[in-house]
Amino acid sequence: MRDITKKREQRYSYGLALLRECIEKKRLWTNNEDEKKAVLRVENIDLSFGDLRALNNVSVDVRGHEILAIIGPNGAGKTSLLNVISGFYRAQRGDIYFNEEKITRFSSHKIAERGICRTFQNIALYSGLTVTDNIIAGRHPHINYNFLTGMIYFPWANREEAYQRAIAEDIIDFLELEHVRGSVVGMLAYGLRKRVELGRALALEPRILLLDEPMAGMNVDEKEDMARFIIDINEFLKIPIVLIEHDMGVVMDIADRIFVLDFGNPIAEGSPEEIKQNQKVISAYLGTG
Ligand SMILES: Nc1ncnc2c1ncn2[C@@H]1O[C@H](COP(=O)(O)OP(=O)(O)O)[C@@H](O)[C@H]1O
Ligand SMILES: [Mg+2]
To answer: Is 79 in the pocket of ligand 1 (CB under 6 A)?
Structure first.
């Protein structure tokens, strides 16, 4: 990942300025001390599918605006944990708090409205729509008029639409998708589709971003680009990011903290240095390569 720093220095004049403004307006905390606080608290989660225990008494905090990586072998429960947080699965036990609000029983829709935004291990986009339209689709909870009034001519509706398009363009520019903005998403290469999916999650104005293997199936160059976007988002928007990732090089490079799951059990939590040296982690995961 040697090129990340260089690539980051070479780029653009403004990063996500409009989006940053939208998020800042709604931000709850302002001072630095509060940035150490848990934004998301996962407490004692049990999740079973029949006899299979996918998550066993899992607790973890996501703090301030850290990048928290979740690692573990296939089937460890990583995706299930994101599904519980985002309301797609219901845990049998335990609670989830977001900015001190209990969201355990909220619908996935309501959770997304709170600003808990995610991408999926298997890309979930409107494959028949263009890149721009997929990203604008992510704006819909934030659009102040319905599209019908937008179709008839109202000056304020036009202004609103122009504003929404400007935010989408801001995101397209940031993710370096200008050259494909009018392309139908289904026709794009895999790495670009992953990038569009990230763009749509950004359009939702995330207050926390949950990324499920955003770099899976990418080549080294694409991975470096994705890593750079993640670091930039974290820095520009000052939001925490939860990242499920198998590439340990990437994880060690960009994570502030790492949480390790094995067969649904939390086995370790700590800085990249601590995790590298943790015996349980080495035998459960790192050692097996
Ligand atoms: N909807 C589901 N129905 C039944 N079993 C599931 C379901 N989702 C996940 N599982 C099971 O839960 C375990 C954890 O899966 P998952 O969270 O996808 O792991 P990971 O993302 O760490 O690879 C696996 O054994 C998987 O087969
Ligand atoms: Mg998974």
So the answer is: yes
What would the two tokens of residue 274 be? 């601590």
Relative to the alpha carbon of 74, which ligand is closest?
Answer: 1
Query: Do residues 45 and 84 make contact, with C-beta atoms less than 8 angstroms apart?
Result: yes
pLDDT tens profile 258-286: 999 999 999 999 999 999 999 999 988 87
Determine phi and psi for 206, rounding to 5 degrees. Answer: -65, 140
What is the structure's pLDDT at 161? 81
Q: Are 65 and 236 in contact (CB under 8 A)?
A: no
101-150 pLDDT, tens per residue? Answer: 999 999 999 999 899 999 988 888 888 999 999 999 888 777 765 555 55
pTM of the model: 0.90
Question: How many whole angstroms separate alpha carbon 133 and alpha carbon 194?
Answer: 15
Ligand 1 neighbourhood includes 51 CB (under 6 angstroms) = no
d(CA 277, CA 257): 14
Q: What CATH code would you report for 3-286? A: 3.40.50.300
Name the residue at shortest CA distance from atom 16 of ligand 1.
Answer: 77
Residue 78 CA, ligand 2 centroid: distance in Å: 5
Tell me, what DSSP letter sits at residue 28? S
